[in-house]
Amino acid sequence: MKDLLGFLIRRLGWMAITLWAVYTVSFVLMRAAPGSPFSAERAMPPAIEQQMRARYNLDAPPLQQYWDYMWGILSRGDLSWSIKLEDYSVNQVIAEGFPVSASLAIFALVFAIILGVSAGVISAVYRGTVADVAMMATAVLGIAIPNFVLASIAILLFVFLIPLFPAAGWGTLRQVALPAICLGLPVAAYIARLTRAGMLESLSREHVRTAFAKGLPKRTVIIKHVLPGALLPVVSYLGPATAGVLTGSLVLEKIFALPGMGSHFIYAATQRDTTLATGMVLTYTVLLFVMNTIVDLAYAVIDPRVELE
């Protein structure tokens, strides 16, 4: 229990340092980029622009802006107001977009784990067969092709040629299925390769050969003796997989017109909405840190030999 508590305290400390570094870098890059949030084809009257700058504290010196924004986060958890989305705070935008992005990520990860583990197990058990070669070749293609390319192909095939899914929107299972599949396929390809490698290593171990020699059914040996050890590399990959799903959803949410955090993040970046962009970056940082911590804890639970550091 002391080891767990110490681990969590250390992780919280590193998360605080990481958030401060990410906030500082984001703040500098946002201010260093050319243009301003009020730049447009039709010039805004100087008096109105001055009022807008005062409203969002952009007329203060950069160092004052830096401390004021950080103090608002630390004291009240306030990520300020969106510059481009009038009457919306950044907290409100994140609260509305997070359930969509989280649902998409969960569906994609569940699909990737089920498909990847199943393909990896079958490929390892029937090593050297046509099924093994076909699955690993498909996995290589899945790793090589970006998810936005898969999304474009999937829309052409399953929206226009074979109308099984709607092209965009959110709210029903049919609307979330296609983007979740496109988001999860590259992750499933990695999981399939990791599962196959772990399975082949476990199958060569002494206790597994002993279980086969005792006459235990093949399914029992694989499920009870082979699969738990083979899944350790998969569990360790779930942290990077979560990062891949979260960052990959940025483009897919735009392609499928999903009202998630990714769409808002791209909008903030293109429209120079500095407060919204900074809030999104910090939110994604927290999510990735939390997911990596959960994965490390799960890894220690599965393999007691692993020490939390």
What does this structure look like?
It is a single chain. The chain has a domain at 95-300: MetI-like fold. 77% of the residues lie in helices and 0% in strands. The protein has 12 helices and no strands. Helix 4 packs parallel to helix 12 (274-302). The radius of gyration is 24 Å and the shape is flat. It is found in: Cell membrane. Residues 98-299 form the ABC transmembrane type-1 domain. Keywords: Cell membrane, Membrane, Transmembrane, Transmembrane helix, Transport. One of its GO terms (cellular component) is plasma membrane.
Question: Which shape, going by the Cα principal axes?
Answer: flat
- Give me the Rg, rounded: 24 Å
Mean pLDDT: 84
Query: What is the second-level CATH architecture of one domain?
Result: Orthogonal Bundle
**CATH topology heading of one domain:** MetI-like fold
Helix content: over 70%
CATH class of one domain: Mainly Alpha
Number of helices: 12
Strand content: under 5%
Instruction: Sketch the topology as an H/E string, one letter per element.
Output: HHHHHHHHHHHH
Our measurement of the CA-to-CA distance between the termini, rounded to an integer number of angstroms, reads 13 Å
Supply the helix-strand structural class. Answer: mainly alpha
What is the assigned CATH homologous superfamily of one domain? MetI-like
Largest sheet, strands/sense/barrel: none
Low-pLDDT residue spans = none
What is the number of beta strands? Answer: 0
Family: Belongs to the binding-protein-dependent transport system permease family.
Pfam family, one: BPD_transp_1
Membrane topology: Multi-pass membrane protein
GO cellular component, one term: plasma membrane
